[in-house]
Amino acid sequence: MSAAQSPTFKKAIEESRKLKAKPTNDELLELYALFKTGNGEKFEDATKPGAFDFQGKYKYNAWKKVIEEDETSGPDAQKKYVTLVNSLKGKYGFEA
Predict the structure, then answer these.
(1) How far, in whole angstroms, is CA 54 from its chain's centroid?
(2) How many other CB atoms sit within 10 Å of the CB of residue 38?
(3) What are phi and psi of 44, to 5 degrees?
(4) What 8-state DSSP symbol labels residue 17?
(5) Nearest to 37 by CA among 76, 95, 89
């Protein structure tokens, strides 16, 4: 079930696709985890990746961290996503 996306969250999603350079893997994982949480997707419904799915494990663990360790709610994740995208725009440039 998707959560209601704020207008600023929707805008940040589009802007994240227009960065002039690719963010680091850690930044991409954080974007992924915040997006999944902000979009209202349920972590407990996620399928745990297989033993040799390393990329899947990194994504799963990043999402798990946002949910369990940081205890980030959907609306908070949307705000953090927007803040992260804005910092990445400053760091990598942005194609308006």
Answers:
(1) 18
(2) 27
(3) -65, -15
(4) T
(5) 76
pTM: 0.91
R_g over Cα of the chain: 13
Question: What is 29-75 written as a DSSP string?
Answer: HHHHHHHHHHTT--GGGSPPPPTT-HHHHHHHHHHHIIIIIS---HH
Closest CA to 68 of 37, 38, 29: 37
CA distance 67 to 7: 23
Q: What is d(CA 16, CA 49) in angstroms, rounded to the nearest whole number?
A: 25
25-39 pLDDT, tens digit per residue, is 999 999 999 999 999
pLDDT for 2? 63
Per-residue pLDDT reduced to its tens digit, 7-19:
999 999 999 999 9
